Amino acid sequence: MSETLAESIRSALRAVVDPATGRDIVSAGMVEGLTVRDGMVQFALQVPRERARALEPLRAAAERAARGVPGVLSATCVLTAHREAPAAPPSGAQGPAGARPHQAGRGGPAAAGQGPMLLPEVGAIVAVASGKGGVGKSTTAVNLAVALAAEGLRVGLLDADIYGPSLPRMLGLREKPRVAGSRILPLSRWGLKAMSIGFLVDEETAMIWRGPMVMGALEQLMGQVEWGALDIMVVDMPPGTGDAQLTMSQRVPLAGAVIVSTPQDVALADARRGVRMFERVQVPVLGIVENMSFFCCPNCGHRSELFGHGGARAEAGRLGVEFLGELPLRLEIRELSDAGTPIVAARPDTPEAEAYRAIARRLWEKVSGGARGARPGPRILVE
């Protein structure tokens, strides 16, 4: 961190005063986690949970003050507070038929104290998740999003993994997003709009943030980005069942979740936990995808089932969810992903690309209610 620039930012933040206390946010000890790297500034304001909604203007003022310091290219400020879990409803208590407790409709009320639902202009939001890392979830999410865009849909791709963002590399994007007023403009690639914390920080920057700061950053990636009207948004979730999953289930009306797993038992056990987690927060599980279902030798094409085969299909049947398809372990998929050219866009005529497209088409059928007549025709992606 540049100490001189950091001190200049702190000096600027001393001019931002909390109207309730009359104290500036620095002397009041509200500023936390200030980091400066290559002109990119991130920090948080620690606030009482019950005042979080009322202090949004204070957050915006702090962000403007930091952004106005010479040498600062962009500034991101989040509100952080330790929230208590809401009390469980009485057994058998239900809202309106078919309604989830934390949402009454797009843009409508959310959970108590959390403000309106985010992303009201997005037709369907689909979380691509896994119980554990290393199963190819991000590769699957990127290729599904590109496949949906190739069908003529307006598609957004959100990287919800704050600690380990991978979209910049997988999409071949290195530039920083532009800012229009107080709104961040998403980057465009392969026919879709994309946003990731990785676009705002250096690739090697470690995000040493506590849970509330991560939740605040994720909310900003949804609420302060100029996504515009979209038919569908694919969200690349971090592995596990933590803060990001809870934030997504509470702050946006998820149309459903796709669970990615490999065939072996240890991965399936984690996938099972992922399914149960989404069920507990009343998010529909759209289906399970078996990634690395089999290995194809790049030299002779021989097929080997390195991790077993069919485990995800069997698990989907046991859990009563749809099995969406299987994807191979192919060197070409990995090489193209690392190069920022998803196989669906770079090698559209391959069987692997068709496998992704088939899953994407099925997802769209499920979240759009089968209204295929409203779907635009396919388009060619040129980058």
Summed up:
The chain is built from eleven helices and 15 strands.
Structure description:
Belongs to the Mrp/NBP35 ATP-binding proteins family. Homodimer. This is Iron-sulfur cluster carrier protein. The protein has 383 residues and is α/β, with parallel strands linked by helices. The chain folds into 2 domains: 78 residues, Fe-S cluster assembly (FSCA) (GMP Synthetase, Chain A, domain 3, 2-Layer Sandwich), CATH 3.30.300; 250 residues, Rossmann fold (3-Layer(aba) Sandwich), CATH 3.40.50. The chain is built from 11 helices and 15 strands. The strands form 4 sheets. Strands 8-9-5-10-4-11-12-15 form an 8-stranded mixed β-sheet, with helices on both faces. A 3-stranded mixed β-sheet has the order 1-2-3, with helices on both faces. α3 packs across α11, α5 packs parallel to α6 and α7 packs parallel to α8. It is elongated, with a radius of gyration of 22 Å.
CATH homologous superfamily of the largest domain - what is it? P-loop containing nucleotide triphosphate hydrolases
> How helical, in percent, are the residues?
25-40%
Number of helical runs? 11
Seen as an oligomer or otherwise, the chain set is single chain
Number of DSSP-assigned strands: 15
Q: Order of helices and strands, N to C?
A: HEEHEEHEHEEEEHEHEHEEEHEHHH
Overall outline: elongated
Query: In whole angstroms, how far apart are the ends?
Result: 35 Å
Low-pLDDT stretches are 82-115, 371-383
Q: What is the total number of structural domains? A: 2
Please state roughly what percent of the residues sit in beta strands, choosing from under 5%, 5-15%, 15-25%, 25-35%, 35-45% or over 45%: 15-25%
* CA-atom Rg in angstroms: 22 Å
Q: Which sheet architecture does the biggest sheet show? A: 8 strands, mixed
Structural class: alpha/beta
Question: Architecture of the largest domain in CATH?
Answer: 3-Layer(aba) Sandwich
Mean pLDDT: 79
In the sheet with the most strands, the strands line up as 8-9-5-10-4-11-12-15
Report the top-level CATH class of the largest domain.
Answer: Alpha Beta
Here the CATH topology of the largest domain equals Rossmann fold
